[in-house]
Amino acid sequence: xxxALSSFxxxxxxxxxxxxxxxxxxxxxxxxxxxxxxAVVSCSIVYAGFVGAMExxxxxxxxxxxxxxxxxxxxxxxxxxxxFIPISWTSxxxxxxxxxxxHSGPLTAEESKNCPRVILVGHSTGGWAMLSVARALRxxxxxxxxxxxxxxxxxxxxxxxxxxxYGAIFHAWDALMFMTTKNVxxxxxxxxxxxANIVVKDASHLSITRDPRIRELVLNSVKSLRTELAxxxxxxxxxxxAAPTP
Length: 246
Prior knowledge:
This protein is α/β, with parallel strands linked by helices and 246 residues long. It has seven helices and eight strands. The radius of gyration is 17 Å and the shape is globular.
């Protein structure tokens, strides 16, 4: 079992790191949800989840996908939610960007203030992919409300960029613990708060995505954001979103 899981993860790392090459263009097209102009809709909250490298973007047993499905329920009509594989992180980035002004260059301060709130979650090499998207959004001056890394794997998944308001990391205590990221740094602690660094001792690299605390952290963030956005709609003074509870 350990050998199989190690091969699974090692293959996933190589799979993700090779994703930028032109030889993988056809693979990206076939493995990624289509993003069209019709995807541009009015949403107050945008959720993008990134599964592990050897999973599909609709893998039913992935907690990342299960959260997506909860956020797609009729009661959450104010939320746009999608999931992606790590090799197609640029498709995830582009999908998120369809919900923002399309001009070149960074968003203005006013645009950033009124744009949708973004929640990003990534598992395994999906943690690397998710932070790659967060950095791309930083370069566009787009804030991210919450990032959650789940047994994250990658060579540049140790620093949460400063456009992220809240970050969290969950990691399993299993045979693969020596390969996964345990601690993260903040690019700028003035802008980002690390909400949680949680060891999940009774989980494997695959089952950890279903830890209920991850789902609750996302749903608490959604609840807080709705409170903030409702206050703005009532033309009240801006109410900062409360920190979601891990």
